[in-house]
Amino acid sequence: MGRADNPVRSVLNHASDRFLSHLPIVYVLTVVGRRADGGLAVRGLYIGDDIECFHLASELSLKVNFEILDEPIRKAVVYLDPAEFHSTWLGNKAVYRTRMALADGAELIILAPGVREFGEDPTIDKIIRKYGYRGTPATLKAVEDNADIAGELSAAAHLIHASSEGRFTITWCPGHLTKEEIEGVGFNYADFDAMLKRYNPDKLKDGYNTVDGEEVFFISNPGLGLWAHRSRL
Description:
Layout: H1 7-19, E1 27-34, E2 40-48, H2 51-65, E3 66-69, E4 73-79, H3 88-91, H4 93-96, E5 102-112, H5 122-131, H6 136-145, H7 147-150, H8 153-161, E6 169-174, H9 179-184, E7 188-189, H10 192-198, E8 207-211, E9 214-219, E10 226-229
Parallel strand pairs: 3-10, 4-5, 4-9, 5-6, 6-7
Antiparallel strand pairs: 1-2, 8-9
Helix pairs in contact: 6-8
């Protein structure tokens, strides 16, 4: 989330130093950005066998992928390429890559023509459907009381990470999930075709647009960036 030194990275570094130091591990990291014409370009390639590789890549990624906004976003529309995003497990990048930029009470609309499931595997899909994206307190209570989610802590972390914690609304517009399924996990639902007509990705540019007199912040690929308002840094 814009910080190279963080608790998760410290755990991974500790595990690598303690348990994997005898292995000839080589890290290959790329930094990918958007070209002026909208295409993608590799801006950096870092190869090494220690933490310096990660720190160098992170330093460039902050310059290429991190967008700091002067004002919080009131309404954001995020498009998920159907060739890449088939589940909310991956598609919720739209949530956690934008949450630091969204204003209190903001609306996040996710256009997801290829999304047809919640989890990337049947077990995780079942857990997401059962417990939903209902915020930290509800998820921690579920872990405390239920063996299935307690045995899949990555799913619990995902449910927390992709929740708005009640601070903003999240409206999913999936191509292959029903209104009942989306609302069943705690999100708002809107019809994909109807929302596509209003927020056509082919007619919007990345960043601020005016749609029917309303200011909308459009993101064509949440995997390429991280957005934050200055007050949250």
